[in-house]
Amino acid sequence: MRNRASEPSAESLLVPVILCGGSGTRLWPLSRALFPKQFVKLTGETSLFQQSVQRAQLCQQVLGIEPANCPALIVCNEEHRFLAQGQLDESGVTSASLVLEPDGRNTAPALTLAAHAVNDDAVLLVMPADQTVQNLKGFAEAVGLAYRCALSEDTIVTLGVRPTRAETGYGYIEPISEIQPSHPEGVRVSRFVEKPTAQVAEQYFHEGRMLWNAGIFVVRKSVWLQAITTHDHAIAQWSEKSWQLRSQDTLKAKTSYFEFLRPDKATFQQCPSQSIDYAVMEKLGSGPVSASVVALDVGWNDLGSWDAVWAMSAQDAQCNGHYGDAVFEESQDCFVSSSGRLVAVVGLQKVVVVETPDAVLVAHQAKSQSVKTLVERLNAQGRPEREIHRKVHRPWGWYDSIDEDDGFKVKRIMVRPGASLSLQKHKHRAEHWVVVRGEATIQVGEKVFQLTANQSTYIPQGEVHRLSNHHDEPLEIIEIQSGSYLGEDDIVRLDDVYGRTAS
To answer: Which H, E and C letters describe 390-446, residue by residue?
Structure first.
């Protein structure tokens, strides 16, 4: 095995790779296809994606690496690029590169694309964007151990979570020897085990040897590319070809710079869909690249279902937990997530209630995993609630469809400071705008003017128009649409700072 110098070099910076490809169907109705769980603020004021980026920055700082000089690399779906960019902006991250997958092909191709996007032989910290950690210092220390291990050897280091219960929903990692708390450094992996039966999970838990597979990896770029080429040549080949044929564009603002990297779609679609574990990790028993594991005991949770979210929530004396406005009476072990309305629970046990403006879920905690089956049924029925929220996020802000009937639709629209909608027109509808907060800059035809709170304007059908916010505070308007067709596809974009005009 080839060893390397233990001292970091200029090419050994820790580059966070945040994988954002999950759909989170078990957390419907908060998590939806166009707004998946990694971007939802499930446990507080920040999303799981934002928490992942913050953890990665902490790990860099502990290692003496300035995050601004070594920004994160985000791998996400093309449809989620502005969600990711907006939440990075919201978190104060002013620079990042986003690799936009034209199609989801699981984590092995995603990591291979990321490796090609990184300069030199950097060390990659590969993390799913949909997990949470309570002990941030302990997490950074574990990553530091994995970093030094990845620097000194040709090995892929995985972080294995010490189990807190007999869990059948996770894969397991068996190290060749038990990792003692007094010797926390990484050891070789003996084998990876798929999700076990309840009886086997109980055995693993009581033996205390096996670790949960968290899907977190630390590896040098060259080592990953060598491993994927050896063990899944098709992924290596098609990922590299699609990367070579990539296109790119940038989004520049006053204080931020985001780069969008687009692998070639037709080529990437030839790439097999495979996870990192199946494609590489389970095949590392022999060959030049090994698998190592560092133990993680930091309050880790992947929040894969509503019962897991309940377990992470602050709870009252009857073990009821909630986010948002909720009251409990004669109830125990219940969980409520409310987006705005008061939710009252009376006389229930182990029940989950999730309220959103357009859908409400009521489920027994024991059936939390079955929410995925429910979402599949909604998808088969063509229900829009499966895919999109009533509040729809756009690169410039969001809109909330408040009311709709034959011939009219009412929206509440928020435009972020410094943002602007596209210069556009509509073939089938007219619009009336009323400013309720902030100051709007409006173009209608050749005329440009400003409106403040309680002022309004009318945009005739077919007229070219644009709405902008040139100020430091959010702009909110009420839009009333009227016409024969009010679909979202009735937009002809003539100019757009976000690159959404038709070619």
So the answer is: CEEEECCEEEEEEEEECCEEEEEEEECCCCECCEEECCCEEEEEEEEECCEEEEECC
